[in-house]
C-alpha cells in the first residue's frame, strides 16, 4: 500500500450513553444520527434494549449505544434492562453520562460517581439546556467538576444546540481505528424490531398511568404483500383485563388511534404502504415470565 502522509487519521469507536430514565438519551442519539432509531416518550423506562446508532463522516465513525435508563429493577424485564446497560459498558471506547440540566438530582451525581470507575474517556453531557436559563447552567455544570470527566458539555438534543461540539469532542477522544460498519449503515436493528418499537411508541404516547409500562409488542407477521404494500400483524401484550379494555377503548377507538399513528410511522420507515393489524392480549405478569420475555425479544 502506498503511504498517504497527508491523509488525516480516521477515528472510530463505540460510545455508550447512560443516565437516569427520561434524561433524553434516545433523543440525543437520534439527533446525532439525524434519523429516528430509538423511540422516545415522556415516560421513564421507554428504552428496553441496547440500541445502536452509527454516525459516519469522512474522518470518523461514532457508534452510539443507547441504553435503558438506570433504575432499581423490580421485574425480570428490569433485570434484563440493567444487564443491557452493563453489557453496553463492556468494551466501549468512550462513555457519555447524560443528565437533564433542568432537573439534576442526587441520583445523577451518584451515577456520575459510579461511572468514574469505568475505563476510557468520559464525557458528562447536560441535556435539555433549552429549558434552563444560561446563568443557572454554569452552577449545574460545576456540580460535576472533580469527578474525572474529560469534558462537561451542555447540549439540547431538541434544538441541536451543542451537538456539533459534542461530536468534535467525541472524535477527539476516540482512538484511531477502522470503519466498523459500511457508510450507509445507521443501526444494527432488524426491521421487525424497529416496527415493533414504533407500535410501542404510539401505545406509550396514547396510554396513561401504569398501562404503558406493562405494554409489550410481539410482531406476528411482516410480509411484502405486493409491490409497495407491507402487511403487518402484531400483538400488544398487557397485564390486566382492565388494561385491555383501556387499550381497545370505546368501540375500539383507542386501538384505532394507536394503529393509525403507528402505521404512519412505519410507512415512513419502510417507504411502502402498510396494512397494520393489531391484537391485544392479556398476559398477567409477563414482565416476570421467561417465555413471554423471550417472545418479545428481551432475552
Ligand atoms: N425540552 C427538551 N426535551 C427533551 C430534550 N431531549 C429529550 N427531551 C424530552 O425528554 C423526554 C425523554 O426523552 P427520551 O429520549 O425518551 O429519554 P431517555 O433518556 O431515552 O429515556 P429512557 O429510555 O426512558 O431511559 C421526551 O419527552 C423528549 O422529547 C431536550 O433537549 N429538550
Ligand atoms: Mg430511551
Task: Say what the CATH topology of the largest domain is.
Answer: Rossmann fold
Quaternary status: single chain
- CATH-level-2 architecture of the largest domain: 3-Layer(aba) Sandwich
Fourth-level CATH superfamily of the largest domain: P-loop containing nucleotide triphosphate hydrolases
Sheet-strand content, in percent, reads: 15-25%
Mean pLDDT over the full residue set:
96
**Structural classification:** alpha/beta
Strand order of the largest sheet: 2-3-1-4-5-6
Query: What is the number of E strands?
Result: 9
The helix fraction, in percent, is 25-40%
Biggest pleated-sheet summary: 6 strands, mixed
Taken from the alpha-carbon principal axes, the silhouette is: globular
Total domain count: 2
- What is the rounded distance between the termini? 44 Å
Radius of gyration: 20 Å
Give the count of helical stretches. Answer: 9
Bound molecules: guanosine-5'-triphosphate, magnesium ion
SSE string: EHEEHEHEHEHHEEHHEH
List segments where confidence is low: pLDDT < 50 over at least 5 consecutive residues: none
